[in-house]
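Entry 14. Structure prediction run on the chain below.
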Amino acid sequence: MSSNVGGHRFVLGLYAALVAVAGAAGYLTGTFVSGLSAPRFLFLVPFPPTPVGFAAYGALTIALVLGAPLALVVYVSAGLDDA
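Output returned:
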């Protein structure tokens, strides 16, 4: 089976899609749930309790949680010998 999408492009596309879904979920949470308190990114940076604040918080959190291990895998796999 051949595919037009390479492995790296697929993983990056999936990563971007997951970050976008997290941002959309944050926006919807901020829109439809009332009485929310302000989220704090990494327990340090406060975001406003608005739909845009929750969207940014969700996207940044998922980007960090998924991006750090992904970057580590890329770094380790680049040092491996295929032979």
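The radius of gyration is 17 Å.
Filed with the rest of this week's runs.
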